[in-house]
Specification:
five-stranded mixed sheet, 3 helices
């Protein structure tokens, strides 16, 4: 097979393959070029709230005085500029769920963060807090 036949044979298919490969490469390149968050939305403004208090959520019948250490966490959030411009620290709720804790020592629980619509949680520092669980009050007959 001559070199000329190697280039000209099925030239239409070769040209189509080259065009298709270029289209795929451009599509993938564009996807990876745009920074994205975990939710798939484009990244907007980012802001860190450094000392948000951690609230303890427990059952209504549990009257023990739970404490967490550290009592505050740093929360980093992002969102569209128009939403982030109006965002206040009191709109972000940081909590630890202790509804299923009977008694434990040296307990570490994950910090849950609730953000307003349009705001995406980026990170929590620290992601877990220590929980100080006092013994349940003695029941007297």
């Amino acid at each position: 097979m001559a070199m000329r036949d190697w280039v000209t044979k099925d030239f239409g298919w070769k040209l189509f393959s080259l065009f298709l490969a270029l289209a795929i490469w451009l599509t993938v390149h564009k996807i990876y070029e745009e920074p994205k968050t975990a939710s798939g939305l484009a990244v907007g403004d980012t802001e860190t709230f450094g000392t948000l208090p951690v609230l303890v959520v427990s059952t209504a019948s549990d009257v023990r005085d739970f404490r967490v250490a550290p009592a505050t966490v740093a929360v980093k959030v992002c969102g569209p500029p128009e939403v982030m411009a109006d965002l206040q620290a009191n709109q972000i709720h940081v909590m630890v769920d202790l509804t299923d804790i009977p008694s434990a020592r040296d307990l570490r629980r994950r910090v849950d963060v609730s953000t307003p619509p349009g705001v995406t949680l980026v990170s929590v520092d620290p992601p877990k807090v220590g929980v100080i669980v006092p013994p349940p009050p003695d029941k007297k007959p």
